[in-house]
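User: Please predict structures.

Assistant: First:
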Amino acid sequence: MTQIDTSKVSRWDQHGREHVVRVHRTGVQRTIRCHTCGWRRSAQFLPWLKAEEHLAEAHQATVDPTAA
């Protein structure tokens, strides 16, 4: 059975640029890393929420491309 150990959170800023934060999983520990600025943080709980917060605060990227 294949196990997914990486996912991403992407948001767009007001200038139409995409910003991506990847969530890497190793056991119960998760590491989040921004591909725009290199910011990195470990997060055991709610890594996707922390990724969204980083994108909103650091890059003003709040437009969710998956939202209808």
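Second:
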Amino acid sequence: MAEHRRGANLPSIGGFNRTVVLDAVRRSPDGLSRVELASRTGLSAQTVSNVTRFLIEAGMIAESGTIVSGRGKPRTILRLEAGSRYAVGVHVDPAVVTYVLLDLAGTVVASTTTSTPTADDPSEVVRTIGTAIDGLITEAQVDVDAVLGVGIASPGPIDVDAGVVLDPPFLPRWRDVPLRDALAEATGYPVLLEKDVTAAAVGEMFLAGESSARNFAFVYFGTGFGVGLVIDHEPVRGVGSNAGDAGHIMVDQGALAGTPDAAGSRGEVGAAVAPDRLVQIARSRGLSLGGDPRDVAAVDRAWDALAEAIDAGDPVAVGLAAEAGTVMGRAVVLIVNLLDIDRVVFGGPFWSRIASAALPAARQAIVDSPLLVPKHPVVVDESGRGADVAAVGAACLVLDAALSPRASALLIRR
């Protein structure tokens, strides 16, 4: 059973206690009685009673049946009211902007996409994203007052304090875009800005519930290669909230090196497995994928064709995906050694389409590596969040801020 965060009985932090109770109920799909809540949170029976009364009146939890356990009065079960609150997640990608609407349980209830604005005109960027958010909420027929806020996942580097997208390498016209505050003003919602790899890791942690790992690495394979880290249930952001750039890790590229004597050829993992480069390698090996490799949208379409070839069992496509998985796995070994973690999760918009062939190869490259230092088992999984993992993670930033107990952060309020 997952470790539950402990509350306090001081009335001055009643808001904190609410999130303690809400977090415990959220992590228990079958619900909890008030007695169980007191036991798991360390709160007194009276405090639990007061807090649950508030949460029931707010519509965030509800009484749902009773259970009989031994002698005495049957216990009333409390469950999360998932449809009482919502959060919007936005992922800014070089090709498309993805939007998702999550309920309180983290379930995607609506999603959409728009083409990525060029950012030559920041007001146009805000207008495009703001209009899409409004449309998403309207189409889902959700009360605007039930939306807690908006999370944005963006390629780095970003300035989290200022809420500015600084200089993302794959978005050459996005420079110093003040996205957070402008979007908050346009939509009327609180807005959180996070680096995409960190947002993905937060989403994985938040949605895992009872099975959430205390320490893990989220290997994010999108237009670039990055790693989101969670240590002791907290995302590692770094001094400037730009942690996660792992593309410069040097690895043996194997057959991806593209030389007659490929074995032992070393290079940066990010360059070796860049989607546009893998598309070029696929073409050089005889796969017909179509499109211009210099065009981001065309690379995405070619990646779809590569995924179809993998699903059809094409040996060239399967082999290429496995080679990419192996190279990524070799890079991850260094991270596992450095942090002594026992779980690695692969995901991201480009990962999900090659995962069937890439994941087994990545897993083997990690667990069978002669360079692996930790002697404990290392679990290597694929994220269940699909290609929209960064957008889902962005929405989870809002839910995590609202539901996860921290002494310094109460429920988001407008």
